[in-house]
Amino acid sequence: MAMLEVKDLVVRYGAIEALHGVSLSVERGQIVTLIGSNGAGKTTTLRAISGLVRAAAGSITFEGRPIANQPPHRILRQGLVQSPEGRGIFANMTVAENLDLGAFARDDKAGIASDREKSLSLFPRLRERLSQNAGTLSGGEQQMLAMARALLARPKLLLLDEPSLGLAPQVVQTIFQIIREINAAGTTILLVEQNAHMALSISHFGYVLEVGRIAMADKASTLEASDEVRKAYLGVG
Amino acid sequence: MTLDQRRAAELAPSRAVAALRSAAPLAVGLGLALALHLGLDASDLPFHTKVLVDVGINVILAVSLTMVNGFTGQFSVGHAAFMAVGGYTAGALTYYSSLLLWDSGDQHGGFLGAGEWLFVGSCIVGGLVAAAAGYVVGLPSLRLRGDYLAIVTLGFGEIVRVILQQTGNVKFTADEVREAGFLDTATSLGGALGFTGVPTYSSIFWVYAFVAITLLVAHRLKFSTYGRAFLSIREDEIAAEAMGVRTTRYKVLAFVLAAGFAGIAGGMFAHQSGATLNPRELGFQKSFDVVTMVVLGGMGSISGAVAAAAILTILPELLRDLPHVWPAGVLVLALGLAFGGPKRARFALWTVGVTAAIEAIRFGARRLGVNLADYRLIFYALSLILMMILRPQGIFGVREAWEIGPIGRILARRARRAAP
Ligand SMILES: Nc1ncnc2c1ncn2[C@@H]1O[C@H](COP(=O)(O)OP(=O)(O)OP(=O)(O)O)[C@@H](O)[C@H]1O
Ligand SMILES: [Mg+2]
Asked: A146 and A159 share a domain?
């Protein structure tokens, strides 16, 4: 059985139905990507999985346990961690304080200290800036901080919402390289991206979301080669 | 044991050390309160005493409100309502208990005597009742994000005011109280005229003892896991929730604590000499004054709230008879030039300009025979505007006095050197 199973997920914002029955699954150890145009419902899907918005219908199962509509802190404790869209860093707090908040739900001091070391060796630029206010970091550094912070919650499954948003191509390369490293170290990843080409190139499996519905699901390499995806999301035509 | 485990064990303070860490500053605070109390003879300097008590009460109000508006970034505009709830509860308790116990509504016993303990107990009960009210108001409105809290607290303030205005006349004798029974007595709070006759107990010692407790709690909160959770909510509520912070719970906790301390401040206010415990006095204007203190001090800065509360309480009194300001100007100028950061030239220019302007106004008024005291509210408003132009983020921003400026730079340098 897959690590994460989402079945017929429906999410409504008031009268608007954003997801009309989304089903997807994430196998342990893989990188799975969810691509789609603006407003397709990618962020909504991730938020429903991590409990930040209510699921009106459908089921979400993580490691065999139903988690739909549990409070976020409980879902987080089971090892499902989201790095929110737009980075969501705490701008007026220092880098160190941001990292501390990543470990907010944990109380194993020794484990936190060693995970903090690991995160900082993954993102050495953060180490030099520990006492700097997070709001004064560059866009790329803020994204690194958001990921490092999420890692401190010790995720089994890491949900990343558009980590490449607004970053220069070089920095995007670095970020994607680190995503692979995180995955290689044993963390499963569900990645939401606008940058379909990059996302598919590092993923095992991919889903295409179109206005609240899954339109395609296939191996990442197959999706990358398919005409529809190339036309709609890779700007090739 | 791994190296990490050993480090963690070293970092975790033992229970005894933790208890001592709380007890020591509290003892120092109480000692200072006592010294201030004994050093300043209330009968000799009644006016100074009154201003100092006012400062203390406003410090409790501003520091507690900064837990909500500063730490968690919510916006409460009804702090005076919780002050009223606590103040009326405490005032009524002391007054009517005094009538029943000692057959008189006057002060009873001396320093640390039975009357004072009744007063302290009443203030604590007032704080608890205000905290309960805070829970009732806060729970539904803090579940939601956004500006609901401002609207709800505004409404709550009006409700409290109207209810208090409907209460009956204050009873004057023990017999009256016994005859009327509990419910009738509890609703005899003076109505629109206000609750008069509450005995005077708010001495410098007691007010500053509670100031010390408030500061200690606020400081403990800010620099703990709780504080980090509060600040994260203020910075980005959704991200905080994604990190496992139970946002509603922490927002309600901050709100209830703040309401509780406002209630205690209300109790102090009620037992002040010549207090006018009336619904109008504790209305929107008072809430707004406290919000001003918090904004001026820097949202979330405890030392900022203290400084702003002190300045905004003393300033209107000083403006009654404007003193020479040039000695203060010279002092500020010297300190700024000696320790200032990169913007010291601008700072110096402003200091000289403001000092000269105030001296000029003072001189001009003397020559023309204008009484400046008549215009003091204008000066008060002007100085607020000026301070916001000079430091839009408030006196200290989110940080504390010791985290910025020369001391902050020294501490940061030391921290950098200590880091591996
Ligand atoms: N809080 C909200 N209230 C109302 N509607 C919302 C809310 N959040 C999202 N929506 C709507 O739900 C739909 C899906 O939004 P979502 O943010 O999930 O899209 P997305 O795929 O992440 O888009 P993008 O690539 O631009 O981030 C959109 O039509 C959006 O307007
Ligand atoms: Mg999105």
From this structure: no
When scoring B236, B243, B393, B396 by the number of chain A Cβ atoms within 10 A, the one with the most, hence best to mutate, is B243
Residues B397, B301: Cα–Cα separation, whole Å:
6
Predicted pLDDT of residue B143: 85
Residue B2 has pLDDT above 80, yes or no: no
Closest listed ligand to the CA of A84: 2
The SS3 of residue A16 is: strand
Whichever domain contains A59, its CATH number is: 3.40.50.300
d(CA B376, CA B381): 9
If asked whether residues A228 and A174 sit together in one domain, one would say: yes
Number of domains in chain A: 2
Q: How far is CA B81 from the centre of its chain?
A: 14
Inspect the interface and report whether the beta carbons of A130 and B238 lie closer than 8 Å: no
Domain identity same for A94 and A115:
yes
Chain B interface includes A215 (CB < 8 A)? no
Choice between B320 and B191, residue whose per-residue pLDDT is larger: B191
Compute the average pLDDT of residues B11-29: 70
* Co-location of B156 and B284 in the same domain: yes
Chain A residues whose beta carbon lies within 8 Å of the beta carbon of residue B5: 110
Asked if A21 reaches chain B (Cβ–Cβ under 8 Å), the answer is no
A131 and A182 assigned to the same domain: no
Q: Is residue B335 located within the same domain as residue B312?
A: no
What is the domain range of residue A53?
Answer: 4-79+155-233
Tell me the C-alpha distance between B389 and B383, whole Å.
Answer: 10
Whether B88 has a pLDDT exceeding 50, the answer reads: yes
Q: Which residue from A189, A212, A202 is spatially nearest to A23, judged by alpha carbons? A: A212
Is B371 within the bounds of a domain?
yes
pLDDT of B199 over the 90 cut: yes
Q: Assess whether A191 and A202 both reside in one domain.
A: yes
B3 inside domain: no
Looking at the complex, report in whole angstroms how far the Cα of residue B9 sits from the nearest Cα belonging to chain A: 8
**In a shared domain, residues B97 and B246:** yes
Residue B111 domain boundaries: 20-316
Say whether both B189 and B105 belong to one domain: yes
Sheet holding A16-26, edge to edge: A16-26, A4-13, A57-62, A65-66
Question: What's the whole-number mean pLDDT along residues B328-350?
Answer: 82
- Cα distance between residue B176 and residue B197, in whole Å: 15
Residue B8 lies in a domain: no
B190 and B309 together in one domain = yes
pLDDT less than 70: residues of chain A: 234-237
Name the pLDDT band for B72 (thresholds 50, 70, 90).
very high
Tell whether A102 is within 8 A of chain B (Cβ).
yes
State yes or no: ipTM above 0.85.
Answer: yes
Asked if pLDDT for residue B385 goes beyond 80, the answer is yes
How high is the mean pLDDT of chain B? 86
Please answer yes or no on whether B232 and A93 come within 8 Å at the CB atom. yes
| pLDDT the model gives residue B133 | 97
Residue B329 CA to residue B228 CA, distance in Å, equals 38
**What is residue B4's predicted lDDT score, i.e. its pLDDT?**
46
Any idea how long chain A is? 237
3-state class (DSSP) for residue B277: strand
Partner-chain contact A73 B245, CB within 8 Å:
yes
Ligand found nearest the CA of A17:
1
Q: What is the mean pLDDT of residues B213-239?
A: 92
Mark whether B120 and B209 lie in a shared domain.
yes
Please indicate, yes or no, whether residues A160 and A50 belong to a single structural domain of this protein.
Answer: yes
Q: What's this model's pTM, rounded to 2 decimal places?
A: 0.87
Q: How far is A91 from chain B (nearest CA, A)?
A: 7
Task: Calculate how far, in angstroms, residue A167's C-alpha sits from the geometric centre of ligand 1.
Answer: 21
Same domain flag for A56 and A106: no
Kindly report the number of other CB atoms within 10 A of residue B155's CB atom: 14
How many A-B residue pairs are in contact by the CB < 8 A criterion?
Answer: 84
How far, in Å, CA of B221 to CA of B66, rounded?
12
